[in-house]
Structure formats: structure tokens, C-alpha cells
């Protein structure tokens, strides 16, 4: 068994004061840094959108953040502008230990498709390459932490389980947006997919 710690989107825009702030998003940083000591392999993900991304409400006339829109690949929540490539908001939280990262995988760079999951874009088809990276390194077991529990952690954990990885989510080192029942739905979905919720 070879395992990796996957730290999802611990970026300024998802922390208090950021454009898409997750309540208490910053509080998980010390615990995540400490957890890295228990892993030989640490992978970070980074939400990384071009300006004018199609998941931004500002890109759609008459739409406000948190409204839904139908995209060619299905329903999509519209977000405030966040994690624009190269911006301070897209940078990792200043206290996150990035030194231990073997891989930093970026996602959401396709202007037309959002990507919550670290494995596939929201069309659920276009791969990010993470699966190939893990398989070629013979990594079978994943522990996930980060932001946000109900979006990027959720989609990443469900995809990992579907792909056959053994995946655990440490919920005390995650925080949720929890919009419209999204946290409870995510917990049920992760469990149904076979992720181990800790
Ligand atoms: C995320 C909404 C939009 C996340 C990313 O990291 O959970 N949520 N983009
Ligand atoms: Zn995003």
C-alpha cells in the first residue's frame, strides 16, 4: 500500500477575507501542515481560473453569484470571481507548507468548463492527469483534506473512489461552503461512492 495526502485548494480566496471565503477555511492550515509529517507523498491542488471564466457570475449578463446556470455539460453554480491565475487570491494560504509537495496540480484552467474534482473537469470526462500520475507511482490510498468539503473535496473524493482508489476524507481538516444543503448532500454522496469519512 502506497499512500498520498491530497490537500485540496487551500488558497487565499477560499479563506476568510477571500473572494469565495469558506468559514474557518484558514483554521485547518496548522493541522494540515502537521499531518504532512505522516506522509511520504504530498500533493496539492490549486483552483486556477483564467479571468472571465465561465463559472463566474460576472461572465453571464443578469446573473448573480450562487445562481445556477445550464452549461453544455450540465447544471453549474455561478461563483464570485475567484482564484484567477496569478492573483494573490489564487496563491496558497501563506502558512500552508508547500515545501513537501511532490506535485501541485492545477484545475479549472479551461475557460468553458469548471473543474471541482482533482481528477476530471465538470464534464466528468476530461482528465486532469492526476489519475495517471498516481497510477504510474503505484499510489493506491489517498487521504484528502482541504476546501471546500462540499465542492472540490467532495468531487475529488467521489472520483477517486469511482476510479478504485481507497480514499479517506479527514473532515476535521476540511471546511464547507454549505450552501442550500450542499454539505449534507456531499457527505451522503461521498459515503455512497465508498469514500471513508473520518
Ligand atoms: C471550489 C467553488 C468554485 C472549491 C472551487 O475549491 O471547493 N468551490 N471553485
Ligand atoms: Zn473555482
TrEMBL record:
Alphabetical list of PANTHER family matching this protein: LD05707P, PYRAZINAMIDASE/NICOTINAMIDASE
Protein name stated in the entry: Nicotinamidase
Protein source organism: Thalassovita mediterranea
This protein's UniProt keywords: Hydrolase, Metal-binding, Pyridine nucleotide biosynthesis
InterPro entries recorded: Isochorismatase-like_dom (IPR000868), Isochorismatase-like_sf (IPR036380), Isochorismatase_Nicotinamidase (IPR052347)
A UniProt-annotated Pfam family: Isochorismatase
Family: Belongs to the isochorismatase family.
EC number in record: 3.5.1.19
GO biological process: pyridine nucleotide biosynthetic process
Domain (Isochorismatase-like): residue spans on this chain: 4-195
Domain of life the protein comes from: Bacteria
UniProt signal peptide: none
NCBIfam families registered for this protein in UniProt: PRK11609.1 (NF008623)
Pathway, per record: Cofactor biosynthesis; nicotinate biosynthesis; nicotinate from nicotinamide: step 1/1
Transferase as UniProt keyword: no
Any GO molecular function: nicotinamidase activity
